[in-house]
Structure formats: structure tokens, C-alpha cells
Hints:
- The structure is a single chain.
- By secondary structure, the chain is an alpha/beta fold.
- Helix content is 50%, strand content 16%.
- The chain has nine helices and eight strands.
- The chain has helices spanning 7-15, 41-57, 73-85, 101-107, 133-158, 162-167, 171-185, 192-197, 213-228; strands spanning 18-19, 24-28, 62-68, 90-99, 111-114, 119-122, 188-190, 203-204.
- Helix 3 (73-85) packs parallel to helix 4.
- The model has no long low-confidence stretch (mean pLDDT 90).
Amino acid sequence: MTQINNESDLYNIHNLCIDAKSRELYLHSSFDSEEESGVEFRSAIMFEKNVRYLNQISHDPILVHMHLPGGDWQDCMGIVDTITTSHSKIFILAYGKVESASSILFQAAHLRVLMPNTHMLIHYGSLSIEDEHRAAKSSFEWSEKESLKMINMFSERCIGSPIAKERNWKKHIIKKHIMSQLDNKSDWILNADESVYYGFADGVLGDRKFPTIDKLKNKINLKEKKLSK
């Protein structure tokens, strides 16, 4: 286990959201905001810089500690692109809540683990339009396309999940089921075990596969060493 042994390390963790020695990042709302804003330009830019920096050091895996209540869609997708184009594989351990936009970026990680009391909330994003007719129409059409992108991301993750195997679901059935849940419930809320059941997470910290954070990191590193041989 990497030791934090000076004020500089502590400053980097609390202010720059990075522990370069252990290759761990912290993704949460910006402390510059008076309210918990979730994913927005400051937290997204900080994350993008930190991933870029760690990739320049090595291509060893990166563990992200995430505590986010959702946020801005475009900034969320910026983080998704950062994760999917990173040379270093990115693993996310989520705390407390994985809601709205953060539930989507969580799906981009190479390994997705939830803390035991973490819940996931999935819903369509909100859209506020104050513009002339043609611009409003364009915004609505863009929102519809992005909503479909979200559905496809969750559908892909559900393929091969316990529920899909039990019910012998094909992709089009999975997509239909997810859309029906969102249409009927508006906010579809799952606990940690239900998220794993649907394939929206790979495990829960404390279970047999991921008993502790240190063992989670060891498993990640061992897996990567085997793949590199």
C-alpha cells in the first residue's frame, strides 16, 4: 500500500484530486461551487488533465474514487471520452450515489465497483429551451439523439448480465426493457446488488471478488500483468 508521507501528497489529493504515486484519482463536485454541482467543466477538466498526466508517466491502471450526483451531459461525455481513449485502463470505485450523468460515465470504466450502500439512479436528462422555434427544435432533436446514446450504453452493459442470462434476453429486448423502466418510473433507482444484477456494475466492495480496496487494486494490477505478457 502506497504511503502518504508529506504535505505535498496531501495537498495534491485534496486540491488537485490526484495521488500520482498510487495512480489514484478523485472525481467529485468542485469545491469552488457553493452547491454540489456534480459533473461540470471544473471537475471534468481536472479529471482530463490528471488522466493525461498519469498516462505520460506510465500505462499502468488508474483507480478513480468517484462520488458524484450527476451533472452536465456534455462534461460527462468529455469524461467518457477521456476514459475510453486512455492508454491506461481506468477503474472506478463509486461511493454514495451514482446518479444521472455519473451513472453514464461509470459505464465507460474498464471495471466498475460500488461501495455497499451506493445506489444508482438512471433517468432521461432535463432540457430547458428558451429560444426561437428553429433553435428550440434543433435542441430537442439533439437531446433525443443523446438520450438514445444513453440507452445504447446501458443496453451494451446489460448484455451478458445475470438478468439477461436468466431471461435469455437479446439486445433489442434489453433496450425495450430499459426504456420501459425509464418511461414508467422516471427515476429508475437500483441498489448496489441490483446494479450488478443488471450488468451496470461489476461488483460490490466487500463481496468475495472485491473484499477490500487494497485487494481490488492488487487484482487490477495482476490482471494487467497477465494481459501484458
